[in-house]
Design a protein that fits this description.
heterodimer, A: mainly alpha, MetI-like fold, B: mainly alpha, 9 helices
Chain lengths: 223, 250
């Protein structure tokens, strides 16, 4: 077997020059998509649970539609359509942020819906008996409990989201994987670069899912 | 903005609209190309699914074996490896890295390598479902098999697996639909599937909206078809008395 693998090119300089910029964007995209996705997803979940057909129907179509299309196609769609709607060209990075918030909202809304449905009915009745309005009931009674019950699932979805950010490759945005790829091309070491990318993704995601598992156990004890 | 659906009847080389939307005399229209791309998407997905089911069932079963901690650990390592690295990176590993390490595989087309990447990636998820399916069975089932004098292989073959596989059909349905969606990532190594088609034709014809709409519709149709087929399998393989007839699944 003739194997020519050389790690010597992989220095700290290379990391800060090529990879770090991409890593920042990957993390930024993950953070914005998580916060925006949970916010929008909670609204969608409340629409679906409102019991009013004119709110339920559009939310259901949106969520099921997003969930039946591949993420790569959604990324391409937004990259094509958003500039047409706002009338001016936008960069791949901005487009990616808008896409991920819109796409992940569908997945987060399913998690939030399950979380809200896991709250016993008596909690809502108790809120009503105390004279709370619908908004107060949702904000002060239902959502805090739903968030806590669903925290591990929301965080697991965030880890999946972080992995999915690599798909911005389709529109050429500069994420962590792109950083590794460009570094590999510049130093004529693409093989090592892809392997390094795999290792970095693995270490980050494995650590995070280990932390989520621990958190899950902690929450389970408190309840 | 105006629609122009005639783009699908255009010849891919001359860009002229022919009389028939299907190319004649060896000419290829965009419609022909799109249908062939759909064929690639379906082939990549089904072959990956086949690998995923075989490997996933095997690893998922091994992870539940009693008294063999090393096999279980190996199975867990397999699952963690695939769950913590993005699919796109796995596809790059198979397409760029593995043929360098094993020169024999240099002659394989990208299509085959993508099938292995997607197949193994999905196998980890299926292994997880098979494991939870087996562990969801009452412990007594395993003991009953042992008490009857079955060997480990026999009680898996005749007692545990026939039940476990039927329990996990609903999560397998969504995993099968995921395989179809994930096959779109094959665009990154130039497999001529639907997403690749959408990207290329959007650039060639500037009719992005029409092309994307058609491709999206094909993805949705594929997903619906899978959903119906799996619902049929679920109905046919239902264990009598276990799930109320007509009731929802798990």
């Amino acid at each position: 077997m003739h194997l020519n693998i050389d790690w010597s090119f992989f220095t700290w300089d290379l990391f800060t020059n090529f990879v770090l910029k991409g890593l920042y964007f990957s993390l930024f995209l993950t953070a914005v998509a998580t916060i925006g996705g949970i916010a929008l997803g909670t609204v969608l979940a409340l629409m679906r649970l409102s019991g009013k057909k004119w709110l339920d129907l559009p939310a259901t179509i949106y969520v099921n539609g997003m969930r039946s299309i591949p993420l790569v196609m959604v990324i391409l769609w937004f990259f094509l359509v958003v500039p047409l709607i706002i009338g001016e060209p936008i960069g791949a990075e901005t487009s990616a942020v808008i896409t991920f918030v819109a796409f992940e909202a569908a997945y987060f809304s399913e998690i939030m819906r399950a979380g809200i449905q896991s709250i016993p009915r008596g909690q809502v009745f108790a809120g009503q008996a105390l004279g709370m309005t619908y908004g107060q009931n949702i904000r002060l009674v239902v959502l805090p409990q739903a968030f806590r019950n669903m925290l591990p699932v929301l965080l697991t979805q965030t880890i999946i989201l972080f992995q999915d950010t690599s798909l911005v490759y389709a529109i050429g945005a500069y994420d962590m994987l792109k950083g590794f790829e460009i570094a590999g091309k510049n130093y004529f070491r693409p093989i090592e670069a892809y392997m390094a990318a795999a290792v970095v993704y693995f270490v980050m995601c494995y650590t995070l899912s280990w932390l989520v598992k621990r958190l899950h156990k902690k929450i389970a004890i408190i309840r | 903005m105006s629609w122009d659906w005639q783009v699908f009847c255009q010849d891919t080389i001359t860009q002229e609209v022919g009389q028939s939307c299907f190319g004649q005399n060896g000419e290829i229209t965009y419609l022909d190309w799109m249908l062939s791309a759909w064929g690639w998407t379906v082939s990549v997905s089904l072959l990956s699914l086949l690998i995923a089911l075989v490997v996933g069932a095997l690893i998922g079963t091994l992870r539940t074996l009693p008294d063999s901690p090393w096999i279980v650990r190996l199975g867990n390592a397999w699952v963690e490896f695939f769950r913590n690295i993005p699919l796109l990176v796995h596809i790059f590993l198979w397409y760029h890295v593995i043929p360098t390490i094993f020169p024999v595989m240099k002659s394989l087309p990208g299509f085959t390598l993508v099938i292995f990447a997607l197949g193994f990636f999905t196998s980890a998820r299926i292994a997880e479902q098979v494991r939870s399916g087996i562990q969801a069975l009452p412990r007594g089932q395993r003991y009953a098999g042992m008490a009857l004098g079955f060997t480990t292989f026999q009680y898996y073959r005749y007692v545990l697996l026939p039940m476990a596989f039927r329990i996990i059909i609903p999560p397998l349905t969504s995993e099968t639909m995921n395989v179809f969606k994930n096959s779109s990532v094959a665009f990154a190594v130039s497999v001529a599937e639907l997403t690749m088609f959408a990207m290329q034709v959007q650039e060639e014809t500037s009719r992005g909206i029409e092309v994307y709409l058609a491709v999206t519709a094909l993805y949705v149709v594929s997903a619906l078809a899978i959903n119906r087929i799996m619902a049929f399998i679920e109905k046919r393989s239902r264990v009598p008395g276990m799930i109320a007839a007509g009731g929802g699944g798990h």
